[in-house]
Structure formats: structure tokens, C-alpha cells
Amino acid sequence: MRVHLTATAAAAVRRGHPWVYRDGIAGAAGRAASAGGRGARAHRAVAAAAVVAASGEVVELAAEGAPFLGRGLWDADSPIAVRVFQRTQAPALDERALAERLERAFALRDGWFAGRDTTAYRMCNGEGDRVPSLVIDRYDRVAVVRLDGGLLAPWVERLLPHLARALGARGVRSIGLRAPAGGADAEGKKLTHVHGPPLPERVVVRELGVAMEVDLARGQKTGAFLDQRDNRARVRALAAGRRRALNLFSYAGGFSVAAALGGAGRVTSVDSASAAHATAQRTFRENGVDPSAHEFVTADVFDFLEKARARGDRYDLIVSDPPSFAPSERAKPRALGAYRRLHTAVARVLDPGGVLCAASCSSHISMEDFVGTLDDATLERDDLRVRALHGQPEDHPTLPAWWEGRYLKFVVLE
Fold first, then answer.
1. Among residues 149, 152, 148, which one has the least CA distance to residue 58?
2. Closest Cα to residue 134, out of 104, 118, 156, 119?
3. Are 174 and 142 in contact (CB under 8 A)?
4. By percentage, how much of the chain surpasses pLDDT 90?
5. Are residues 147 and 239 in the same domain?
6. Is the domain of 192 the same as that of 256?
């Protein structure tokens, strides 16, 4: 099927953006809607609605004056109608072409993680590795595959032999498929076995030499937030000589363990999920740290901060890494307000001379937007400065035209 794009969508594809939204579809099968004139917007909407294709179907992209812009896969259910895979006419878009893309992504990591001090990392970052919607994370001998949208679901069975061969050559023995959001089974498990020996529910991996327990069966993302690996190492370095560290939205305690190993005297971890604390405590023990010397609080973070301020508690290292406050562009104003409220509350319990590490994982919030929620007026103090700005690590690459891929912000203030 040939899909005709509006001028705006076509320009984005030429720049290398990998997504075509539904309102960028002008028509299909040789019928292009006019880009101008009265009723053009309504005509485009009708044309886009009339496009009928199954998820995973290969489509060619065209526009006025450009009979071929590229090829992609159609998604029948997502607001992103097409993920763009190719911008050249050869070769064909098939499983062999996708397997070659995956092999290039895997080979790139071979030189980065050749030692055994890091056994968990991202092997394919979807659009950033030019394999849109496909994420593959490695946890030692296990690989977890996650699909964004339904367009690659029909391709999984065809790609599996290629994946098993390429991953097996790198020491991966088992492959699991992550369920889509809300797809957990009756026991809360989100992982389906698709290849190799049975999947463990939990696995201990190493991250820059630090042990980390990962809940593959029920954890967030594919089991762990691998994109914060370098930032956890930064927190470990910042923790030297700190008396009291606070990790907010602590989840499985990655930043907490980093702070403890770095020398923080007492680390307080705050999360609303008590099960996450149990994982964190096992990780503490794996690293030879007694969790009883630290504090694990099951509470709402905002409520905790209010009570901590009332008690007069102060911390000289604080990490704040909340879940995404902006799941959509429409939610952005509300999200910025939530970040400001959070950062105001955090600053009130930060000691003079302390370090604040503030993170955001929302692609709809730019770095400048986020830094703006850490200004003097918000923090109600003028003794802090931005020491460093960080994003995701090298195994989470992005594309120049795909700003959405630069989602992670990690700001260090001191």
C-alpha cells in the first residue's frame, strides 16, 4: 500500500523523524488529499480515516512531488500510524532487513560491554537504533523483548530465529516477550517465555561492578531502569562524605545502593510500593551492605516530604526520580506544575551545602523546561547552582530529528 503524506509530515520524514501521526496522512493507494484550500483539513481527516491496513503491513510513503519517501510499518491502533524503517528503495523491508539492523545494533554494544562488570544493558533501542518500536534489554543470560505498539507483533515469530542466533552468539540463552501495558496475568507476571531455557522470575546482574537484583516477571519497564546506569554511578561518587541521603520514588533502590556504597552514612528510600523495598534490601545484601543500617519508608512522597519538614529532618544528598508526570503533550502544563511542587518540597529538606539530583523521564518535557522547574523562585533559595546536566547512556541512542528520544533529564545542583 502507498500512503500519501501531508507536506508537514513529509518534511519530518525527510529530516529523519521515524513517526508519521494519523493527521499526517493525506490519502492512500494513489489518492492524495489537497494540502491547501477550503476544507483541506476535513478532507485529510476523511482520507486518513479511510486508510485500511493491518498492523505490521509494509507501506510506502509518498508526497506531492516525491513519489518515494521511504517505507514503514502500519499500526492500525496507535496515534502513530506509520513507523518509518527505510528511506531508500532497496533492499526490501522484510525480516532479513530487520535482522541486519538488529545485528548492527548488537555489534555496536559488543565493544562497549566486553568485560563482566556490566551484564545488564540495552541491546536495541527501537527508533534510536533504526528499528522502530523494538526494545531489547539484556539481563546477563536473559533478553527481554518489548514492543511499542502492535506493528511488530506479526513479525515476532519470523524474527525469533534471527534473534536466537545473534543473541546466542553473545551468551544469551533465554528470550522473553514483555506484555504490553496492562497485560499482566492473574499472578501479576508480565513476561512470556519465547525461546531457550525457562525464564527466572528474578536475576542478579552487575552494573559497573555493582550487584543489582531485577524482577523480570513483575518489575517496571523490562525489569529495571537501565537508562539510569551512568547516573547511579554519579550518585555513588557524590555520596562520599554525606551523612544522610534521601532517595525519592526509590523503586528497587538503585540510587539508594549507589549512595550507600559511595559512603553515605544513612540512606532513606521512599516509595509507595513495599515490594520494591524488599527487592532493594536484597540488593543491599548482594553488595555486602546491611539494609538495617538504612531506612525504607512506604509512603506517598509528597506526604513524606511534608512530614519530614515538620520534623526538621534534613538531608545532604537527595535524589528525586519520579515516574513520568507528562504522558502526553496535553498533560505538559500540569506536569510542570507537579515538578515545581515536588522540587519546592524537596528543597525545603535539603541541607545548606547539600546536593540535589532531579530527574525526569518524560519526552514531552525538554531539558530547558525541566531546569525551569528548579529555579530560585521554585526552590525558595539562592544557594544552588547547576553543576551538570545529563541524559541517557550510550546504549540508549537517539536520532537528531527525533527529539522524543531525548527523554531522560538528570540535573545535579549543588
1. 152
2. 156
3. yes
4. 86
5. no
6. no
Domain that holds residue 38: 2-86
The answer to whether residues 115 and 135 belong to one domain is yes
357 is catalytic: no
The residue among 37, 56, 86 that closes a domain is: 86
Binning pLDDT at 50, 70 and 90, where does residue 39 land? very low
The DSSP 8-state label assigned to residue 239 in this structure reads T
Q: Give the DSSP per-residue string, 11-48.
A: HHHHHT--EEEGGGEEEETT----SSSTTHHHHHHHHH
How far CA 320 is from CA of 108, 255, 315, 378, in Å, comes to: 32, 10, 12, 15
Question: Which grid coordinates are listed for 70?
Answer: 521511504
Peptide bond into 154 cis (omega under 30): no
Angle among Cα 222, 227, 232 to the nearest 5 degrees reads 120
- Domain-terminating residue out of 206, 235, 265: 206
**Computed from CA positions of residues 36, 89, 105, 169, in that sequence, does the dihedral angle turn out positive or negative?**
positive
At 100-131, the pLDDT tens digits run: 999 999 999 998 987 779 999 999 999 999 99
CATH number of domain containing 64: 2.30.130.10
- pTM exceeds 0.85: yes
Alpha-carbon separation of residue 255 from 9, 159, 231, 271 (angstroms): 41, 36, 8, 12
Q: How many CB atoms lie within 10 A of CB 392?
A: 24
The pLDDT tens digits for 238-274 are: 999 999 999 999 999 999 999 999 999 999 999 999 9
The set of cell numbers assigned to 283 is 540488593
Question: Which residue out of 5, 10, 145, 361 is catalytically annotated?
Answer: 361
At 51 the pLDDT is: 66
